[in-house]
């Protein structure tokens, strides 16, 4: 579990480019489906799923299933220190995920996204 008492696990989880972008996208969108993330980051589904599983195992993310789709959001059990660090990163470095956000926006709204991309 990611807490202020385990900063090493938090920083290890975020030390990968793909994982950091995934967390930042989820922060912007609130909740994102795996197929949306694969399109936004232009990566394969197995790679995205592997990184999401690691982020879920370390306590950064929570998921919910809806039929064949899996949606990810920040874990409600994240402590204030971890949330503060993530928010500061999001506020200061939003440009870091600008291309991925643009691809996500270009997918359209969720019903259209699911029909066309998932």
TrEMBL record:
Keyword terms: Arsenical resistance, DNA-binding, Transcription, Transcription regulation
Superkingdom of origin: Bacteria
Keyword Transmembrane helix applies: no
PROSITE patterns: HTH_ARSR_2
GO MF, any single term: DNA binding
Single biological process term from Gene Ontology: response to arsenic-containing substance
InterPro entries: ArsR-like_HTH, HTH_ArsR_DNA-bd_dom, HTH_MetalResp_TranReg, WH-like_DNA-bd_sf, WH_DNA-bd_sf
Keyword DNA-binding listed: yes
One Pfam family per UniProt: HTH_5
The protein's name: Transcriptional regulator
Biological source species: Oceanimonas doudoroffii
Source organism phylogeny: Bacteria, Pseudomonadati, Pseudomonadota, Gammaproteobacteria, Aeromonadales
